[in-house]
# Entry
Amino acid sequence: MRCFRPRSSKAADEASAVVEKRQASQSQQVSTDVREGVEAGAQQDSKYQLSRIMRPDDANIVGNVHGGMILKMIEEAGCIVGTRHCNAQNGDRCLAALVRVEKTEFLFPMFIGEVAHVTAEITYTSKHSLEVQVKVLAENILTGAKKLANKAALWYVPCSLQNVNKVMDVPPIKYASEEQEEQGRKRYEAQKLERLETKARTEEMVPPPPNPEDPPKEQHTVGFSQSSLIHLVGPSDCTIHNYVHGGVTMKLMDEVAGIVAARHCNTNIVTASVDAINFHRKINKGCVVTVTGRLTFVSNKSMEIEVLVDVSSLVEADKFRAVSAFLTFISLDKDNKPLPVPPLKIDGEEEQRRFEEGKARYLQNKAKRLADKERQQ
# Structure
C-alpha cells in the first residue's frame, strides 16, 4: 500500500493561495458577467417592437388601414417601452402616461393583410419625462416587400401606481454622444414651451354640438360636414389607473376627422398627418367623451380638420376640454391616387379667421417639407 506524507506548512500555504486566487478570479468574472447582463438588459429595455397583422376591422371599406389604428399601436408600443424603462429602478411601481405626440406624418398607406412592425426606442430622458421615437414598417408577407409607413415622437411621464398624481423620476439613458444628448434636450425644451402655449386653447369654452333639428346645411360648408361622436369610457378603454389610454383618444379623434373629410369630398379618404397633440387632463373611466370635428382649411388636394375632445361626468357637474388637434386628410381614387378636393365655402368672420390660420399652417408645413427634401438631396 502506497503511503502519502503530509505536505509541509509552506506547501499548504502556497496551495491555499492558488485556490483563493482562482476563486477571486471566478468571482470577479461572475460580477463582470452580471454587470454586463444588467447593462444589456437596461439597453434592451429602452427598445421594443410589436408586430400585428392588419385585419378587416382595422380598415375602411376599400382596405386602407385607419390612421387611428396606427396611432393606437404607436402609443401602445411607446407605453410598453416607457413603463419597462421606468420600472427598472427601485421605488414605487409606475405606468408611463402619454402627455404629447409630436407632428406625425403618414408616409405610405397600409392595407388589410399587411403586417405592421412597430419599433419604439427611448431617445431622451429628463428628470420626470422621456421621449420615445417610433417607426412603423408595413410588410407584405406574400412578397416580403417592406416600406416605412409612419414615424412619430411621443412624450411620457411615469405616474405612480399608488398615487396617479405622483410623477416618478425617470432613470437616465446612455447617449451615443454629447451632441445626441444636446439635441434631445433642445427637443425637450421646445415641446415643454409649446405645451404651455397650447394649454390656454384647451380651456376655451366648449361649443354646443350641432342640433339635428336644424335645417340641412349647404354642401361643402363647415356646418355640412361637421360631425360629433359621443363615447362612454369603459374599462377596456383604460389603463390600470382607470384613465383613458392616449391611443384610444387618438383613434376616436381620427375616426371623427375621417367622417368629416368623407362628408366633404364624398370619396375614399386617408390620414396624411397629425399635428402635435397635447394631453393636458386625464379622462377617467365612466366619463362621457364628445369628439367634434370641423373643417378649418382646404387646399387643392388636402383638408385640415380641427378635432376637439370634450369630457363631462355622469355624476358631477364637471365639463372640460381635454385635447384638441389638427389632422390632415387627402382624397383618393380607386387606385389610391390623390384627387382634387372641393373648395370650402366660408360663412362668417370666425370661419374666415380659422381658414386663414389653417392656410398659414399649410404653407409653413409645405415649406418645411421642401426644405427637408432639399437637405436629403
